[in-house]
Amino acid sequence: MALLFYVVLCLSVWTGLCQIPVNNTPEITPSSLAAKLTSNSVILTSPSCYFNGLGNLSCNSTTTCEIWLVSAKDTGVSNYDADNKMPYIDTRSPYPTAFSSNTSKKYFLTKLGLQKAYPCPIVAGTGYFRVGSDGNCSTPNCNGILPVGSTARFKYVLINPANKTVVAESLWSNNITLYSLKDPEKIDNGFAGRSAAMIVITAILCSFLALLLLLLLIMLIYVLCCRKEKQEIQVPGSVRTYDTHNLKEPSPYVNHAYEDEPQRPTATSPIRLKSYTDYDLKKPATEL
């Protein structure tokens, strides 16, 4: 019924001065997009389906009507509401000077495109709109960045391109506060910003590291300076044959445990030893 009332009202006055309100509110996109809210930009839901099915418009909603976005901060909301019935609304508050001084109107308009580019239902790739994607631009209706850390509100409007009058508009969004940047000079990078536990743990780890380096240095000095020369092990002489310790009649004896050891004749021992079989001294001995 409310929509019918506004349609009848529009028929009674000049069509270009009448706006049809649409009960839709822009908001931050619920999609998990990176950087959907920054210090100077925000990603909003798409205006698809916002102005679908409207009739008695001064422009053709499918071929000529254009969708624009109004971005405002502080008094910009009331300033736009006072200007939105005037023709050529796109020139009332150009972007480069929209927020430059206290006397600025603090709002600006950005063109999204023809209404037919935002069909209903939503088509993949048209589900959101990034405010501020043109950066710090200089044209009157560019998609410029917002003041850093500001609180802004947004609304989508349908505009007749013939005289740039608003023929339909959505509701204002809720306040959206952008992130604030911290002054680098105020960032505390000293120990005051560290907890006592972290300082203690850091000190202990540094002490262990110093001790480990000291031990490695001592080990290196020991290896280089205090190492003894390797001495060869003296191999004892052969015990294959030896003289029995008989003081009256000493005689050579063959140790059978070393029979496999090669014989080592020497100049001081030219005597050929006798071999005793099974240690039986009664049997005659055989010469080696």
Describe this structure in words.
With 288 residues, this protein is an alpha+beta fold. The chain has a domain at 18-176. The protein has helices at residues 2-12, 76-83, 196-225, and strands at residues 20-21, 42-45, 66-73, 107-114, 128-131, 151-160, 165-169, 176-177, 241-243, 252-254, 274-275, 286-287. The strands form four sheets. Strands 1, 3, 4, 6, 7 and 8 form a six-stranded mixed β-sheet that branches. Strands 2-5 form a two-stranded antiparallel ribbon. It has a two-stranded antiparallel ribbon with strand order 9-10. The radius of gyration is 51 Å and the shape is elongated. 21% of the residues are buried. InterPro entries: Uroplakin-3.
Helices and strands, with pairings:
Blueprint: H1 2-12, E1 20-21, E2 42-45, E3 66-73, H2 76-83, E4 107-114, E5 128-131, E6 151-160, E7 165-169, E8 176-177, H3 196-225, E9 241-243, E10 252-254, E11 274-275, E12 286-287
Parallel strand pairs: 1-7
Antiparallel strand pairs: 2-5, 3-4, 3-6, 6-7, 6-8, 9-10, 11-12
- Report the structural category: alpha+beta
User: Ranges with pLDDT <50 over ≥5 residues?
Assistant: 1-16
Radius of gyration: 51 Å
Question: In percent terms, what proportion of residues is strand?
Answer: 15-25%
Largest sheet: 6 strands, mixed
End-to-end distance: 138 Å
Keywords: Membrane, Signal, Transmembrane, Transmembrane helix
InterPro entries: Uroplakin-3
Protein name: Uroplakin-3b-like protein 1 isoform X2
